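Protocol step 4 of 6: structure prediction from sequence.
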Amino acid sequence: MLFVVSEVYYPEEAATAHYMASIAEALAARGPVRAICATPKYDMAGRHPRGKESRHGVEIHRCWGTAFDKNRLLGRILNAGTASVSMFARTLWVVRRGDLVFLVTNPPLLPLFALLACRVRGARCCLRIDDVYPEAMVHAGLIRPGGILASIANWANRRLYRRMDRIIVLGRDMKRLVEEKLGYAGDKVLVIPNWADTDSVAPAERCQNRFLAQYGLQGKFVVGYAGNIGRVQAVESLFEAASLLEGRPELHFLVFGSGQKVSWLARAVAAAQLTNLTLAGLRSRAEQAEMLNAFDVGAIALVRGMAGAGVPSRLYNLMAAGRPVLAALDAESEVAQVVREEKIGWVVPPDEPQKLAGAILEASSNRERLKAMGARARKAAEEKYSAARILGLYERVLGGKT
């Protein structure tokens, strides 16, 4: 039996929920799969699906947990803690010797509890790392670098990694960081990137785009941002670039998403009286294709030092939409490597808005070059990052274990 353990799962629309549910459903075609998750609390907060149901061949077990505001630190800690304890109890109850548990790193306590349940029950354990701790927490400003909490988290995660049967990471930069923690390189750590939803997201003409019509952006060069606007997203650079380019009325920034930094960004835009940056709020995954096709270029921005600690999944659907990428992040990160390898955009330092503004001006000045980048992005999404190809990798790693 294969158990997929993830705090967020269907019907949530967060990236982790989408990917973990898709992996579980793909593997269900090869053998029995059960998902252990928490009740919805983020995108679908207030929705109350059944505690147990089947979907696309996967038997879903939902565990109780608090549902406080995730943008408040105490609320997020309580949500993560209660969900982790509840899911640990369920895993300990249902897992048996010889089973395989496939889990994800969020929230940080969940893998430690799940590993304990596996040890007690004699089950095997495979970890997918979405975020590397304590690095992700340090760069989010939640704990002090070099402090006691960071040291404890680093010690705990080293032990966690060493006790896993397999580890799946999302990028080459993450693989290097994880192997540093392990103290060796071998075949235990595998790179399996996230995928592009090439079936539901495809390039489309902008002339009929309803978001452009809604916000009066027809004829503008649109720099788009879509996704989480949390603590490690460097939206400050996006704001500063918009401020530097306010005198160019043909350029506009369109931002979709939610997260801890949304309120800061809204206040900053209002205080500066910026007219070239629109906050469009959180949209559903069903609207993703039209949202991305409203962009001329898509921006991805992370704070300095995040290379290896996380890999933004939004890259792959920007590529599926045939949109060039403005990557404001560490040069050695997976996103930067893909952008350079596929020749699909620009890479600039994460905290130099002048260079980001310069890249935007360069992008807007050569539409033919932009079109060629978009075509290469779509081609790479289809050939290297399609769901069929990436899910096939998961089937090879986990499918024989069900």
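Step 5 (inspection) to follow. Residues 56 and 348 are 42 Å apart (CA to CA).
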